[in-house]
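Let us practice reading a record.
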Amino acid sequence: MKSLYKIVLYYLIVFSSIGTLAQHQSKIIVELVPATHTLRIQQEITFTNQSNDTLSSIVLNDWNHAYSDKNTPLAQRFSDEFYRGFHLAKDSERGGTSNLTILNFEKLFLSWNRSTENPDLITVDLRDKLMPNQSVTLYLTYFSKIPSNQFTKYGYASNGNLNLKNWYVTPARYENSAFVKYSNCNLDDSANGTVDFFIQFKIPKEAVLTTDLVVTNQIEDKAQINYHLEGKSRTDFNLFIESKSNFISYQNDKNEVITDINSAKLDAIQKILIINRIAHFVDEIIGAYPHPKILVTQTNYDRNPFYGLNQLPQFLNPFEDDFLFEIKFLKTYVETYLKTSLRLDPRKDNWIYDAIQMDLMIKYIEQFHPTTTMLGKASQFKLLKNYNLATLKFNQQYSYFYMLMARKNLDQSLSSSKTELIKFNEQIASKYRAGLSINFLDKYLQNGIVKKSIQEFYTLNKSQQTSSKDFESILKSNATKNINWFFSTIVHSRELIDYKFAKVSKTKDSITFSIKNKTDLPIPIPIYGVKKKEIVFKDWLDLKECDSTFTIKRNQADRIILNYNNEVPEINLRNNWKKLEGFFPNNRPIKFVFMKDLEDPYFNQILYIPTVTYNLYDGVSPGIRLHNKTILDKPITFDINPAFSSKTNNLIGSGALIMNENYRNSSLYTIRYALSGSYFHYAPNASYSKITPSVEFRIREADLRDNRKQSFMARQVMVNREQSEINSSDLTENYSIFNFRYSNSKTEVTHHFSSLTDVQFARNFGKIASEIEYRKLFENNRQINIRFYTGVFLFNTTNSDFFSFGLDRPTDYLFDYGFYGRSESSGFFSQQYIQSEGGFKSKLNQSFSNQWISTINGSFNIWNWIELYGDIGYLKNRHSKGQFLYDSGLRLNLVTDYFEVYFPLYSSNGFEPLQNSYNEKIRFVLTLSPATLINLFNRKWF
């Protein structure tokens, strides 16, 4: 400890010439221990009370400690988004802060604590109250264990390179008479106070350090390099330690740009030209960058890529290499520029970062790449000429990504805290809507008012902490029109915007029309006159009242279109135009499109795709699917899939008509009305037809990130079956069943809980069943699965087991499950397992219950995806005694609910591996539906 005091005293003398600043200071001595990826840290924090409040404690951000265990807010975030890597990681792969001591200037220990809610924050109790404009100095020693970069891309790599982020302790932001207490949630939004940094960083001699701080000195000895770093007025900085640097420095007349975003096909001159153009463009739009160096990293791009460019394999990439490099660098450069310049609350006021960044990107494309389309050079392919996706300009994709979420009723207000946003909104849709909205305001106000306001706000950030209220105040003071609607509706609500034409009349010289405001929001909207795709006039309509009527000059226009260039983030563009010629003013021709496309407001699109289905009785069945489901959801959709049965030489298939009614401001967010039908074979040369009208009520939590889902569904299932040799009973050929279901589920990586209540009534039976399923992943990475099922007949006058509860395999008389051989009682197809009803895996002598049944199914993993399972149950049939049954075995849980294999071991039948035909006792789960598998991987986004 004495050595620490000497070091601190030495640095007090060294830094005494710096002078006293009005903001915090942090002086850090760091030594890297490569073998354990640990930093030994001695730190002096001078905290200045810049508020008018008297403080008795100080809050420090220690975000590296978020990696310390599996119960932190960061770990919970990973679980919410179905990322298993952190939970399954070794302790050595996680990080954290240890051996922390905090002293005051008198070398007395200060008490400090971490809360359960925010374990990555440190509250330090001061011995004396800190008055306004007074400072206090804290002396800290601690070890900072750096985590693996597999979790967030920050940390140590497998080759030993380090990308250091949030590795040190720093004062939290203070505003509105309180410290801002944010935990690390992997959102790059630490609310740090502004600090002057002075750092001495010791690393092995063979390593290279890269940072956006200023290197003031560099001292080498036999084993180490001692870097002296300095950064003024910083809330954060980047630091890389590599065996060989991947960064290249570019010096322009503004500052030094350091980047590892690379393109092997571009030479140095091409990169310099692109980087200089972007640097000058951003400076001209926003203002001069306040620091001498800016570090633009591939890591930052990989964490927040330009959605679309990163989705295609390299050999399919439709963009030139220089354009790809330009867009990647532009997005990352602007994001870094803003995060290191603005002193906003990056969680609460994140929409301002997004708005400025995306607006600047939109303007950059308009200026330098105005003809580039969303699909780049692929738009020139003849095969794609018919696609709306191929004709859209590059900037038009932003509104479609916003509409994607709005149509799903999953969009969120721009002012929502970053932690409240679901992942797709946080990384894509909300960003794009923020950029579209500020760009819309710019075009509405004109005269560079928005640009001037952004520059004033940017300048204000150089001298003080700011908030969204400052940004709003500056915009309103510069605007020549009332823009209260922009903040009340566009920013602070999730209200939808949707205008349509009501009545339109025209003469040779003028057009008279009325506008129907479908959502009653008085938002201005542009109207265009178009003649043969050329704009002949444009006006802004200031809609002070709904259903307004206007008369304007025609200028030979053959159609009028609202919001032609998507300036306004509307929910629906299909009702925005009227023809001024022809008998049918809105007659949309039908356009057939292969596979998938974006919605085209000027056509009725029918999408088609070849399909192949299979079951044992129809064989391989080629068909064609016709539907109107574009990438954007529609209120009414149809889906028809006729096919040819190769075994029966008959037409088979399915179809559905669905109407969705969304509710914006209630827990009941969607009512789905549906009419579906299908015609297939359920046994050799025996077909069935099924018609099902249904209504479903879907309920969600107010917090859209909450994975809890609830639904009520009522349906009438009408089945007409041909008689078969397998089942010749006349009583079960044709039937109609009323079915009511309530489901409630919540799923995360670490735990899953779901319940289902199912009620059925038919002419000759009535039954009710309930199912509860629970799955828990423990901290030792053991997982337990438990399922309870109980069913009872309210009345039953049937004479067969067709409607009975199944112990190991249901008869599936509702035809809900994807059985490949649903009527098979032996052979390979009879071994298909779908967990339902009794849920047993072994085939026992008593397989059905016509009175009541109760079972428990459980499994426990013994190594990775190898599990032990066991089932116990009690079932009762009429006119017989109840039976207790059980089975057990091994489960290969390769992909839960999608690909599993069950090997029975011991059951009510005895020790099964020693019995005849054991291979026929093995059960399997196999799901071939691409849509089902896609949903498995998409759940982390929605």
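A brief commentary: Residues 1-21 have pLDDT under 50 and may be disordered.
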